[in-house]
Every structure is written in structure tokens, then in C-alpha cells.
Design goal:
By secondary structure, the protein is mostly helical. It folds into two domains: 67 residues, Arc Repressor Mutant, subunit A (Orthogonal Bundle), CATH 1.10.10; 38 residues. Helix content is 66%, strand content 0%. Helix 1 packs across helix 3 and helix 2 crosses helix 3. The mean pLDDT is 90.
């Protein structure tokens, strides 16, 4: 397990996503080293709730807990984007065909 270092740790508190490796490493500090969430969050200047979420997800990813894995969440998001794109393309083609038929009748 790679250690959380100053090079891998995002600087300062910020909203948004942290790199997957960073989240996994932080969760591993709690799970593998049997440290408390509060201790790790305080040491790394992170919000306890956020670290707790990462720990819960890491346990799911490791198969220690029931739930949707990160890989499955990403696949679901990709498929939703694809369905949205295909639906838009289908609707555009339907409108194009309707316009073409209407023009042919003139």
C-alpha cells in the first residue's frame, strides 16, 4: 500500500473530488492500520464524514461489506451517459425523418 505523502495529498481544503488513489490510501490507513477515522481525518486535515465515506466504500470494494463497488458505479455512470447520447441521437433522427417525409409530400 502506497503511503499518503505530501506529494500525493491534495493541498488545502477544497470541494470536489480527490484522486482515487488518495481516497484508497486514506481508507487503508483506517482499515489496515486500525486507526480511527477521526485520527486520520485530523492528521490529514480532512472532514471525518468524508473519510468515513471512503472507508465504507473501500470495505465494499474489498468485498468486506455488501454494496455497489466503485467499478460498478463507474460502469453505471458510463452506461447512463451512453443511453442519454443514444436517446438524443434517436430523437434527432426521428425529427429528421419526419421533416424529410413532410418535405417529400410538398
Amino acid at each position: 500500500m502506497p503511503a499518503v505523502t505530501e506529494e500525493t495529498r491534495p493541498t488545502g481544503r477544497r470541494r470536489g473530488r480527490y484522486p482515487r488513489e488518495f481516497r484508497r490510501d486514506v481508507a487503508a490507513l483506517v482499515i489496515d492500520q486500525h486507526r480511527t477515522i477521526a485520527d486520520v481525518a485530523n492528521e490529514l486535515d480532512l472532514v471525518e464524514q468524508t473519510v468515513g465515506n471512503w472507508v465504507r466504500q473501500e470495505r465494499v470494494d474489498r468485498g468486506e461489506k455488501e454494496g455497489t463497488t466503485t467499478e460498478m458505479r463507474e460502469e453505471n455512470a458510463r452506461l447512463r451517459r451512453e443511453v442519454k447520447r443514444l436517446t438524443m441521437e434517436r430523437d434527432l433522427l426521428k425529427r429528421s425523418v419526419a421533416f424529410w417525409v413532410k418535405e417529400q409530400d410538398r
